[in-house]
Structure formats: structure tokens, C-alpha cells
Records
---
Amino acid sequence: MDQGSSHSVTTSHRATSSDSHYNGIAIRNVTAMVTDNDRAAVTITESSGFTLVSEVPGGHTDTYTVTLNTVPTGDVTIAVESGDTGAVTVSPATLTFTAANWSTGQTVTITVVEDNVDQGSYRSMTISHRAASVDAQYSTISIPSVTATVVDGGSTGPCTASSGVQRCCLQWR
Ligand SMILES: [Ca+2]
Ligand SMILES: [Ca+2]
């Protein structure tokens, strides 16, 4: 049940005892903040914590998984879109989550497009996600995008960027 991001719960107590000093005595109420963990959300987990593909053989693909955080009231489809299909492609293009498989990670594979064109040492591509569902919580949800680092085949430049690029250069240069 979704009850908002958080709400307070008041627990009252009253003692029962054969000791007349304690029987029926009022005990101070306890109020606790309860965080609702039933809020609709989509979790994206990048393998190794980042997404990087390289035009150099051996590094063409990378993957990440997608799961829902709550049981949807209807099927949820998530469209996966590459910001530049001339640079990277995605597969599959659509993920479908049901009340039966919502918590099972579905894998998206990112594949670099080998174009034999020197485009500089690396570029960042955005992979975006858009949900559709009869479940209003999921049809309106904002899903984080994935940033894929694309290393060019002609790259010989110094590795000065993020850890993902550095690892790639160590591995593939
Ligand atoms: Ca990865
Ligand atoms: Ca290229």
C-alpha cells in the first residue's frame, strides 16, 4: 500500500498489573516516523557501476539491468532509447514488467556502432527510458537515464577522464 513518502504512527500503551500502583497507569505515547517503501520506482543497475563500450574489438558491448521496486497494478512497458543510434544501439528496445516478474532484473545490452570514423577519444551517449502502463504510478514515473561512454576505435589520446574511461584504456589500448 502506498501511503506517501513517510507518515507518523502513534503507539499508545496502558499497563495492566496486579500491583495497584501500576495497574491502569498511562504510559507515554511513542511516535515513530515510518518511511513508506512501497513507492513506485524503477531501479537501474549498471554492470561494474558504469556503462562503457569501445569500438576496439573486445569492448563492443556492456549491460545493465532494470527492475521495478513495487508490484504494478498492470503491465509496465519501458521503452529504451539510444540518444544516437549511429553511435550505440540498445537491445531489447522494450522491456515488459508484470505483476509476476516485476522484481526480476531484465538485461539491456548496449552495443557500439563500429564506423571506422575517428570521432575523438571518447563521447558520452544518453540511454533514456520511458514507461507506459495503466498503473498511474508507473505511467507518470521518471526513470533515470544511463550515460554510456563510447570509446572510439581510433583513440590514442591520454586517459584523463572518468574511472570508466581509464579502465577501458588500461584494458584496450
Ligand atoms: Ca558496465
Ligand atoms: Ca568511430
---
Amino acid sequence: MAGAGEHWQYMQSWRILPVARMGETITAWLHFVAMMSLLAALTAEHLLFKPPLDQRAARRLIRIDLIYGLSALVVLITGILRVLYFGMGAPFYLSNPVFHAKFGAFLVLVLLSVYPTLQFLGWRRALRLGQPPDVPISRARTIVFAIRLELSLVLLLPLLAVLTARGYGL
Ligand code: HEM
């Protein structure tokens, strides 16, 4: 537990280095916003993906999946920035197996999203011809399974994140 003196010094450091702190604060904020938008997009995909799909639903799913991809990219970029510049220093994270598990879970999340994304993008030809997409039941099941696994990983990731931030695993 920090004493009053240490706390005062910490508060002073915020006054002395406001610009550096601002970078750290904005990066941390963007990391949170991006992970929330990732979860929102994934939940929306899960709710909307109910074949047979009409053209409107198919177009929406393609757009939502794009938001999901962009969110994952922002999570990754802000995460890397926090590792390199705004966190406890790269050795703190790179030597921690809990952080490795977090990064590994994120990579699995990204890999799992490849199949649904390729399927959604494959619908564009039918949509250009003014037709709804044809989604065979076996493919639909695989897409739902992938999205559910991704949702489970999104629950696990914040746990690994808070454990890492508190030095578990070191
Ligand atoms: C969907 C994926 C991710 C989720 C849900 C997530 C979640 C979080 C959360 C909740 C925190 C705040 C922890 C706390 O202060 O208690 C955090 C911090 C952090 N995240 Fe992520 N994260 C994700 C991906 C990543 C990735 C891919 C990286 C690295 C490339 C990363 C690097 C970091 C770092 C360095 C911190 C700061 C830890 C500290 O305060 O020492 N994150 N993340």
C-alpha cells in the first residue's frame, strides 16, 4: 500500500509530465473503446446471423464484420503501443506467461474470425446480382460455432489482462 508521500509524488508526476501522460491515457482509452466495439460487433453478428438471410441482413453482416476487423486492429495497435511505450516496459510483459496466454488468445480470436469473414465476403457476388446469399446449413453451423468461440475468448481476455496488469505470472 503506498504511503501519503508516495501518493503525493505520483500526483506530482502527473503535473510534470502532462503530455506523456496524455499519450498513455488516450492509448489506454482507445484500447478499452476498441475492445468494447469488438464485443458489440461480435454480439451483433451473433444476433443477426440467422439464415436464410435476405440481402439487407447480408449487407449488414458484411459491414458489421468490417467494424469487428477494424476494432481488432485498433486493439492490437494500442496493445502494442502499451507494451512498448505506455505500460510497465516491454520486459514486464514479454517475460510473463500470463501475457503470452493473453496474446495467444487474441491470435486465436483473430484466426477464428477468418472463416466467417471469408464466408461473408463470398456473398458479395450474389448481392451484386441482386440475389440473397446461399448459406448451406453445415457452413452456417460452423460460422455460429466460430462466433461463439470468439465470444468466449472475449470474456477470457479481460481476465488475462487484469492478471497481467497486476503482475500475476511473474
Ligand atoms: C480483445 C483483446 C484484448 C482485450 C479484451 C484486452 C483487455 C485489456 C484490459 C481490460 C486491460 C486493462 C487491464 C487493467 O488495467 O487492469 C488491458 C491492458 C493492456 N493490454 Fe490489452 N486487451 C486485448 C488485447 C491486447 C493485445 C493484443 C495486446 C498486446 C499486443 C494488449 C496489451 C495490453 C497492455 C500492455 C496493457 C496494459 C497492462 C498494464 O497496465 O500493465 N492487449 N487490456
